[in-house]
Amino acid sequence: MTEKTEFTSKSGVKGLVDADITQVPQIFHFPSSTLSNNRPSNLSDLNLTVPTIDLGDIIKDQDNTAARKVVVSKIKDASENWGFFQVMNHGVPLTVLEEIKQGVRRFNEEDPEVKKHYTPLTVTGFNNQKFFYNASFDNHSNPMNWRDTFVCFIAPDPPNPEEIPLACRDAIIEYSKHVMEFGALLFQLLSEALGLDSEMLKKMDCLKGLFIACNYYPPCPEPDLTLGINKHTDNSFLTLLLQDQIGGLQVLYQDYWVDVPPIPGAFVVNIGDFMQLITNDKFPSLAHRVRANTNGPRISVACFFSSSLFPNSTVYGPIKELLTEENPAKYKEITIPEYTAGYLANNFDGKSYLSNYRI
């Protein structure tokens, strides 16, 4: 039995930590060049700070057109220049945010025999399972990432409640309702930031698919040897991330790894590959990663607006209204399941899969 096979037959990374290991197994070791934390000596001199946008005024008054214009302008600037921003005062109750984080913790700290019931039936876990566990996106990658993950597919075909483990069932159902509602507002604001009708992205079914990946990063005895998640871009139109206060998320901006510091009660929003494609590079999907840490467990909840491998015949290409003679289409048309299949086969190798579809 290989080291990797032995690992995947056990109770994930948490199982290793529970066994009181003092060294990171070789299957988790990344090359030093990958682990490099290249950054300028003084971030403030270059103003390398992920934008933070306060939505309070438009959440309190949806008809406040002046405040909405200010927010749209900030979202446009952040999406064009960073592909990443944080949002505060978004209207999702803090109690809902706290409960989903606790639900992720409760499930991951269940008895291993309980969690085994939710391990994927197939390599990718997409055999009509709406909920599956154990780093199913990348436990065949090389090296492996220092995290355990469970995934729940929410839309367009939500799971039956009994398909979701009791430890996180109510939290996921409640959280996903708020995410879908807030997601609708975000897609309106992004549509307006593109100079399009506010319902344009919704009409393109960008809001139709949603799945949630809940990450549990156990404390790592040798964090300088591995990563929580390797460098990657997201297989989505938009990703909405809730992170706890431990930190570790970094975005690759102008060849520097810039920390995305936790802000209590805030969401991290980042542009995904499909949004970069349909906006013809106007809104870029930036690479990001998560560093391992000695604290923990670190918990994050990533909501991906994407139908992933589930059936979706819609063909996506650059939005016609954004194209001109000077700005012709830069990408081929593609369906989301087709893209996702190749994206997953790439095994988080650190390269942008979207580049394969450039014209």
Automatic annotation (TrEMBL):
Q: Name one GO molecular function term.
A: metal ion binding
Q: What Pfam families does the annotation carry?
A: 2OG-FeII_Oxy (PF03171), DIOX_N (PF14226)
Please tell me whether the keyword Aminoacyl-tRNA synthetase is annotated for this protein: no
**Assigned keywords, A-Z:** Iron, Metal-binding, Oxidoreductase
Query: Record keywords: Oxidoreductase included?
Result: yes
Q: Which PROSITE patterns match?
A: FE2OG_OXY
Residue span, Fe2OG dioxygenase domain: 202-307
Q: Which cofactor does it need?
A: Fe cation
Q: Which domain of life is it from?
A: Eukaryota
Q: Which family does it belong to?
A: Belongs to the iron/ascorbate-dependent oxidoreductase family.
Fetch the PANTHER family from UniProt: 1-AMINOCYCLOPROPANE-1-CARBOXYLATE OXIDASE HOMOLOG 10-RELATED (PTHR10209:SF473), OXIDOREDUCTASE, 2OG-FE II OXYGENASE FAMILY PROTEIN (PTHR10209)
| Protein name per the record | Fe2OG dioxygenase domain-containing protein
